[in-house]
Amino acid sequence: MRDTFRAFATTIGFGFRAAPWHAAFQIVTEIALGLVGPFTGYSMKLLLDAVQAKDLDLALVGGTVLSVTIAVLLVAMYYNAHCIFTVIERTQALADRKLMTLIGGIDSLAHHERPEYLDQIYRLREERESLAEMTNASAGFVAALVSFAATSVLLAQVHPALLSLALVAGISMWISSKANDIRVEAQEETSEPERLRRHMYDIGTTAGAGKELRIFGLTKEIVRRHHETSDLVLSARNEADWRAARLKSIDALINAAAFVGAIALVLMLALSGRATIGDVGLVVTLAVEMGMVVAGTVGYGGDFLWTLKQARRFIWLEQYAKSAVKATADPMPAPKRLGHGIDLDAVTFHYPGTERPILENVSAHLPAGAVVALVGENGAGKTTLVKLLCDFYQPDGGQILVDGEDLARIPTRQWHQRVSTAFQDYAQFEFQARETVGVAVTAKIDDDGALNGALARADATSIVEALPQGLDSQLGTTWSEGVDLSGGQWQKLALARGLLREDPLLVVFDEPTAALDPQTEHALFERFAAAARAGHDQGTVTLLVSHRFSTVRMADLIIVLENGRIREIGDHQQLIDRGDLYAELYELQSRAYR
Ligand SMILES: Nc1ncnc2c1ncn2[C@@H]1O[C@H](COP(=O)(O)OP(=O)(O)OP(=O)(O)O)[C@@H](O)[C@H]1O
Known about the structure:
Pfam families: ABC_tran. This is ABC transporter ATP-binding protein. This protein is of the alpha/beta class. It is about 65% helix and about 10% strand. A six-stranded mixed β-sheet has the order 6-7-8-3-9-10, sandwiched between helices. A four-stranded antiparallel β-sheet has the order 2-1-4-5, with helices on one face. It binds adenosine-5'-triphosphate.
């Protein structure tokens, strides 16, 4: 209950924060509109009674009530529509920013990788518009309830038995909410196949998979899979719709019976002289109005509950974001420089929600100022170790020690500020070139000297020089005057981004040069290694993950991982002398290049 209230308060708060006056005015006008139906019925009653009694005064009162009601209707309708759009637009923008801040700001990566979290995040992203709907749903729901109350009072004045219409309306709302639950449940249960269906659609329609789709003639297969998954999703939802429709038809029958009963009752009352002709008009109008009130309450109530569901997901995300912050019982700041280095002390790890250990008992000393290479076959656990060193995940067993202190004690955000990275799956920021590189240290976006220095270290100077407006060029052909770059050029800019930070304690290159030829990669890393060794005062550890042994060989220390365990460790010559896996793989690659 507390969570529900919190979810409601949070999302209605979005509306009032994004557009306070419009939100307040929307609620007022919505309630005014909700009263139009009952007041129209009442003025009709007055007018009919006035005609029957030939009472001019009563006719004037009835006419005035009707005129005011129509005026309120016209004015409120106009402002209400304006408020609805303004509130939704502004709230949507605010909710989007909140989602971006939460999803992108969580220290861990688990919510991007675990299926149960992905479903939640997927639904939140898909249904993000709902987060902006709370003001609208609440205003509509409150207005429908006010209308319901006013209609009930007017009906009771004619005859208390007519309140059975209100009772039936209550039952109707209950049935409709059950029908709505059935639909919502089906949507939730088909969340994963729906994600798969979307994945197929994305594969079939975006540029990323375009080349392989054509070469492998995959389009037909992807369309078939999309069809298969669609059938699964749609048949489950269709079945739920039928069940909901069966409930709704029972509801319709009850309503029809109540409507006929109410008209019969008021006619009997009128024929026996206990009700006026105006009462008959009033009951007919209000019986119809009651149907609309029920539809409104159910519709807005459904929107309200649906919005509440998304709001609860949002609260889940907020709580998850808080819980994903590493528990640092005895926090300490990251050291200014590394004197000793980083130690892996019997590190063991399995991904949350899985059983298989990916790293087992990994121990190694990464000396301050050293260039360390991490090699091993696909799936050996190299990237996983990198994720642990970047503090995206924490070890299940053992410790990572930074100058002898447990990394668990350093708050993740602080550690991230002292880590520089370049990954194989780099982000393609389609901004101006200076921003594409400069986002690594936003304070340096306008510092041409720093940007050019990083570009030079990444061997990317010529790429930017060839751009029409140099650093100010817009990247990405989907933007006006935007220019596109090759995969290797994008990767070099990502590398420059990784090299912009001046005081990192750990620099990680996880196959960031896979799109470059081996000679270029080798030359680049020779340069990084020289720079890393020259920058001993900072004690930075440079960690390089590569499958190219020509590059790896110049590292001070090479760690060979196999099935999540360290198979060998040493420098190039030591490992060659041992004649084990490294020597074998090195020989194989050298032979291929001879
Ligand atoms: N998020 C995840 N959840 C569960 N298992 C994962 C996850 N990420 C990776 N794995 C598993 O962990 C193992 C090691 O993966 P990792 O990416 O660390 O290997 P790698 O040595 O970097 O491989 P490659 O050279 O192919 O990049 C693999 O078996 C992989 O399936």
